[in-house]
Specification:
Blueprint lengths: L4 E4 H30 L8 H26 E4 L14 E6 L4 E8 L10 E3 L3 H6 L7 E6 L2 E11 L2
Parallel strand pairs: 1-2, 4-5
Antiparallel strand pairs: 3-4, 3-7, 6-7
Helix pairs in contact: 1-2
């Protein structure tokens, strides 16, 4: 059975744009580079040819990877999700009981994650610990630096 994963509409659009760029621009450019390198003669000692072929292999592998991701993705409209239970797409406000401050996270697909922006992957340990929890519940989370204690202050789907 194919393992599906959730992704936002924006995340899916980003994957599709990247795929189109690879197919319509990068692939075409590398084919031109290979053709130009072939014109230089002996391929066994032609560094430009070997570099272009290596780049072609990378591009084709990336295209295959993106096509696989797109075929397995399940687009979720976060605006249609309701409730106070944490699941994919939730924007969460947590109170860090140790530091006494609030932190904000949004649970996204692994392809959209960017911790510096508060976007955590649904497959991350923190997201896994949050899934299923509700507002006002406490959470004990083990990190490499020790145990963190959070209280869930709000859950929104925006």
């Amino acid at each position: 059975m194919v393992e599906r994963f959730p992704i936002s509409k924006e995340g899916m659009n980003k994957l599709r744009l990247e795929l189109m760029g690879l197919k319509n621009i990068e692939r075409v450019n590398v084919i031109k580079s290979i053709a130009e390198a072939r014109e230089h003669g002996d391929l066994s000692e032609n560094a430009e040819y070997h570099a272009a072929r290596e780049k072609q292999g990378f591009i084709e592998a990336k295209i295959s990877e993106l096509e696989d991701k797109i075929s397995r993705a399940e687009v979720i409209d976060i605006t249609k999700i309701q409730g106070s239970e944490i699941k994919y797409g939730a924007s969460i406000k947590l109170f860090d009981e140790e530091k006494g401050d609030e932190v904000f996270y949004k649970i996204v697909s692994e392809y959209e994650a960017d911790v510096s922006k508060g976007l955590i992957s649904i497959s991350s340990p923190l997201a896994k610990a949050l899934i299923g929890k509700k507002v006002n519940e406490s959470l004990e989370f083990k990190t490499p630096k020790g145990v963190k204690y959070y209280q869930i202050k709000s859950v929104d789907y925006i």
